[in-house]
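Page 37, continued from 36.
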């Protein structure tokens, strides 16, 4: 059956899933305030004709969306379930209303609570940004001092966490240890399950933001057989993490200020990115009202995958595999022939240069002045140059994402490759928590439970095993 959209315009993209419905005629639509007539006399509704029945439905439009449940009234027969939308991977479905992060993927814009990422990366510390994400406004000086003090005094973990870490095999991936340790934290703080109590949630913010660097560093130290280093509350958030990672026998660890700031900026850049895979996991798992440590473990597990937070690790492995600039054309050819992907390129939302990648590229220069140039940078720069001129990548709007250059900086700072997703998770914790709290306080949210289109067998009888 045909689909007719009489009013082309900015909301057309919202109708993608409707156009897949076989018997629906989307006849007219307009946009303004919900349900009411606009100054031009147009109604802010979508009129849908079901060509199976000839019935017409008027569906309100709000914030350029229609409610999927409004489609349920569309039925061929009275006892039908009603119309649904089909949207694998949530390509065109908003699962929440949010005030935290704004992305315009076509223009390459990223803002937290309205502030451009470029300004936050230049003018703020990670802890200021974490406060902003969770509380909605940048802190005053006094608020920041209190916030920093509360997080800093929650950086220690229970001694049993060390024993727990010791249980892992010597070559366990640090992200596996990190995910498990996050889940284990829930057993130390059982009162965190009282998620409706603001004071409990606040304690969780302090504890999770405070403890993730400690867990991350412990996972690393275990993997290299080094003793665990306890947090040093005299150091900054990033400086303390560097100390717990790399301190050897010196009585006081002094982080290099350039590297300390670079790491802090990387945490800022990774802090939130609206409804990505791991954040959706945090919200989805959190919607069951499980404690936040368990939800955060689920989010971290989602981040581990090579298409998400594991991509920066995959980029480094890819650059190693390429090995030299001369081999880039052959590698690009393989990618275009479908033999693998150019890791660190492409994004579900950005169809332009990822603004975080631009900041990281500049940051890399500062870091390399201290550490010396990472030899893989030349391969990465050449790879980017060639890809950005290639029709395959141009046509598909594939640009470097946040992970393309971040791994090079991490490696120059002596982080092993398998720690990269863990570093991502440290920064992302504040975003997960902000999104989790927003979900909890949103009266429209319920336990997340997608629908399915069942295409399996109709009812059939079981034959006995002996007769099959
Ligand atoms: N290299 C080569 N081709 C690519 C790449 C890539 N990195 N990314 C997408 N494409 C191609 C696809 O093959 C597809 O081509 P086709 O239309 O001929 O089939 C087209 O571009 C669209 O790709 P999709 O997979 O449909 O795009 P989607 O939005 O689902 O995927 C993703 C986004 C997962 C990020 C993808 O671009 C990718 O795999 N990139 C590499 C992994 C990566 O860097 N991930 C980090 C993302 S950022 C983050 O999580 C922090």
């Amino acid at each position: 059956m045909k689909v007719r959209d009489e009013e082309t315009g900015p909301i057309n993209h919202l109708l993608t899933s409707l156009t897949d419905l076989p018997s629906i005629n989307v006849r007219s639509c307009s946009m303004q305030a919900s349900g009411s007539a606009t100054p031009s006399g147009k109604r802010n509704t979508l009129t849908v004709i079901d060509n199976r029945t000839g019935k017409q439905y008027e569906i309100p439009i709000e914030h350029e969306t229609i409610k999927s449940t409004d489609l349920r009234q569309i039925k061929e027969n009275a006892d039908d379930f009603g119309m649904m939308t089909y949207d694998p991977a949530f390509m065109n479905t908003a699962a929440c209303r949010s005030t935290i992060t704004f992305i315009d993927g076509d223009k390459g814009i990223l803002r937290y609570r309205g502030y451009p990422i470029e300004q936050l990366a230049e003018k703020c510390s990670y802890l200021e940004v974490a406060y902003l994400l969770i509380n909605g406004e940048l802190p005053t000086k006094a608020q920041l001092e209190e916030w920093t003090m509360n997080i800093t005094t929650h950086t220690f973990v229970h001694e049993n966490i060390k024993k727990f870490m010791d249980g892992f095999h010597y070559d366990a991936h640090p992200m596996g240890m990190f995910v498990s340790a996050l889940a284990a934290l829930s057993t130390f703080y059982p009162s965190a399950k009282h998620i409706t109590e603001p004071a409990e949630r606040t304690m969780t913010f302090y504890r999770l933001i405070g403890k993730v660097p400690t867990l991350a560093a412990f996972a690393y130290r275990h993997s290299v057989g080094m003793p665990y280093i306890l947090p040093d509350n005299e150091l900054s958030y990033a400086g303390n993490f560097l100390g717990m990672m790399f301190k050897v026998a010196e009585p006081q660890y002094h982080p290099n200020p350039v590297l300390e700031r670079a790491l802090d900026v990387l945490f800022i850049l990774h802090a939130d990115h609206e409804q990505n895979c791991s954040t959706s996991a945090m919200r989805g798992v959190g919607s069951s009202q499980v404690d936040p440590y368990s939800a955060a473990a689920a989010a971290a597990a989602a981040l581990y995958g090579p298409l998400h937070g594991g991509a920066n690790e995959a980029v480094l492995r890819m650059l190693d595999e390429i090995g030299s600039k001369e081999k880039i054309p052959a590698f690009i050819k393989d990618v275009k022939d479908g033999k693998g992907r150019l890791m660190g390129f492409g994004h579900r939302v950005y169809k332009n240069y990822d603004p975080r990648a631009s900041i990281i590229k500049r940051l890399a220069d500062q870091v390399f002045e201290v550490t010396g140039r990472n030899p893989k940078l030349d391969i990465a720069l050449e790879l980017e140059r060639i890809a950005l001129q290639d029709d395959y990548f141009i046509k598909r709007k594939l640009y470097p994402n946040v992970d393309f250059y971040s791994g090079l900086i991490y490696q120059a700072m002596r982080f092993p490759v398998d720690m990269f997703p863990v570093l991502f998770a440290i920064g992302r914790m504040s975003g997960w928590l902000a999104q989790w709290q927003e979900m909890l306080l949103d009266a429209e949210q319920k336990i997340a439970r997608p629908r399915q289109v069942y295409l399996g067998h109709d009812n059939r009888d079981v034959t006995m095993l002996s007769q099959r």
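The beta strands are 24-29, 45-50, 55-60, 101-104, 109-112, 115-116. Flag for discussion at group meeting. Residues 307-308, 311, 335, 341-348, 396, 398, 401-403 surround acetyl coenzyme *A (CB under 6 Å).
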